[in-house]
Amino acid sequence: MKRKTILVTLVCNLCLSLALSAPAFAEDASKFVMTTSDNESSTGQFTITLKGQNIQDLFAYEAKFSFDANKLEVVKADTKIPGFSISPLVKNNEVTIAHTKVGNVDGEKGDLDIGTITFKAKKVGSTNVKWTSLKIVDHNLRSQVFTPNESSDFNKIFSDLAGHWAKSDIMLMVSKNIVEGMDDDHFAPDTNVTRAQFATLISKALNLKDDNVQNPFTDVASGSWYESPVKKAYAAGIINGVSDSNFAPEKNITREEMTAMLMRAKAQSTGTKWKT
């Protein structure tokens, strides 16, 4: 069993590394496309299928993809073509998959699914996978390299945003790092917004930097998650307290308070003066 595995592995490596000087496949005789099972989901898992059209003689292949390893992880690769596959090889932001038929047999012909590769998003947001290279080998061990330049976008959404009217706007703000979820899977879109949450949203949206001011609010605790954005918004003149010494960070914000903050935020971003 071990000898067979070693032999098959050597055959695979040999087929994929050979680049003989013999005539290659006819140019543009075969075409390759990439399809995605889903472009959006709350589970975060999606499968890319590699399809070949007008294949003449495919005995082995090696495919490479670029992706953001901080956002995606490779789950598995698979193919219905008989033979031997290597496990996906991930290095930095590139993954390589490879497969070969075994023995004195002809290569695959016609229109077919070459293989699949499954990814899983590590966090909510959008990401992209690009098919950068395809090397194919025929049963005579002649090889050809293609540059498919096919790509696919994928968006993992919070599970409670599916079908929600504000999904697109919320996910746009997520992509700009303006808002975050209540946890990795939930945004709670219909929950009331607190004064601290809205001050944080404004601070991130305007990319406010200066929090080097004395905190005037006794109820904004040092080290709290909202301390820095509240101080930034206060320094920019966007927020006021409910009194001279209290901000009421956990209190639900009213429409009037929200409007006032937005008007001050617009004035701050445009360099105009806002009269309270």
How are the secondary structure elements laid out?
Layout: H1 2-17, E1 31-36, E2 40-41, E3 45-58, E4 60-67, E5 72-78, E6 84-91, E7 94-100, E8 108-121, E9 125-137, E10 143-146, E11 150-156, H2 167-175, H3 195-205, H4 227-235, H5 255-270
Parallel strand pairs: 2-11
Antiparallel strand pairs: 1-3, 3-8, 4-7, 4-9, 5-8, 6-7, 9-10, 9-11
Outline type: elongated
Percent range for β-strand residues: 25-35%
Helices and strands, in order, run as HEEEEEEEEEEEHHHH
Radius of gyration from CA coordinates: 27 Å
Task: Enumerate how many helices there are, as a single number.
Answer: 5
Note poorly predicted spans.
1-27
Average pLDDT figure:
87
Strand count, sense and barrel status of the largest sheet are:
7 strands, mixed
Percent helix among the residues?
10-25%
Short description:
This protein is α+β, with helices and mostly antiparallel strands and 276 residues long.
Describe this structure in words.
This protein is of the alpha+beta class. Helix content is 22%, strand content 33%. Strands 2, 4, 6, 7, 9, 10 and 11 form a seven-stranded mixed β-sheet that branches. Helix 3 crosses helix 4 (227-235) and helix 3 packs parallel to helix 5 (255-270). The radius of gyration is 27 Å and the shape is elongated. The N and C termini lie far apart (81 Å). Mean pLDDT is 87; it is low at 1-27.
